[in-house]
């Protein structure tokens, strides 16, 4: 059986390659590898999410399920002063560290974690995730619950999810946990939700 991208320790043979993408007007070079999510290029959902993001000045940002780091790096380009990138996949974490450093985002740190476990005692202004849909609804909903606990009052959770992969149930779960949930944009079946934590 082949690895999922949410495997702790991928066994796929390395196949490192460099891709070039534009993140919020800045060209970046990202190293990817076999055994990580969307290794051949930035996936459409992450692109829609990155293009929609609003990061307050001097925000602390958490990127959950960071892969090789494009969302966290985009947060740095948008001015986040502190960025934590989490992924269960140790190969993804190594790449995220390498890519953040190579693209001038030294304020980004990357840590291996099962969802938000590694930062359960920390609080953030903004949490962003392209959640691991293939890990199942229960996992995605647990991510939402943990994100709610890790947001500062007035903070926001940004999520991308495809309509056919459970956007309606995801939105319903977010509405259980957050005072306000907005659909920021939709594009080719992808929905971007912004959930606000009350002050």
TrEMBL record:
InterPro entries: RsmC/RlmG, SAM-dependent_MTases_sf, Small_mtfrase_dom. Residues 28-194 form the Methyltransferase small domain. Coiled coil: none annotated. GO terms for molecular function: methyltransferase activity. This is Methyltransferase. The keyword Methyltransferase applies. GO terms for biological process: methylation. Keywords: Methyltransferase, Transferase. It holds the Pfam family MTS.
């Amino acid at each position: 059986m082949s690895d999922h991208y949410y495997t702790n320790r991928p066994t796929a043979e390395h196949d490192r390659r460099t891709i070039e993408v534009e993140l919020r007007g800045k060209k970046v070079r990202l190293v990817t590898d076999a055994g990580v999510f969307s290794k051949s290029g930035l996936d459409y959902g992450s692109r829609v999410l990155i293009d929609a993001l609003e990061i307050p000045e001097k925000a602390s940002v958490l990127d959950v399920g960071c892969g090789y780091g494009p969302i966290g790096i985009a947060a740095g380009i948008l001015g986040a002063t502190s960025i934590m990138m989490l992924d269960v996949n140790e190969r993804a974490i190594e790449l995220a560290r390498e890519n953040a450093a190579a693209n001038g985002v030294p304020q980004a740190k990357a840590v291996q974690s099962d969802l938000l476990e590694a930062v359960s005692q920390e609080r953030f202004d903004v949490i962003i995730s392209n959640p691991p849909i293939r890990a199942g609804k229960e996992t995605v909903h647990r991510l939402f619950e943990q994100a709610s606990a890790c947001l500062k009052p007035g903070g926001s959770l940004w999520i991308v999810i495809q309509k056919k992969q459970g956007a309606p149930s995801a939105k319903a779960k977010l509405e259980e946990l957050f005072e306000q949930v907005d659909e920021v944009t939709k594009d080719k079946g992808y929905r971007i939700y912004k959930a606000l934590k009350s002050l």
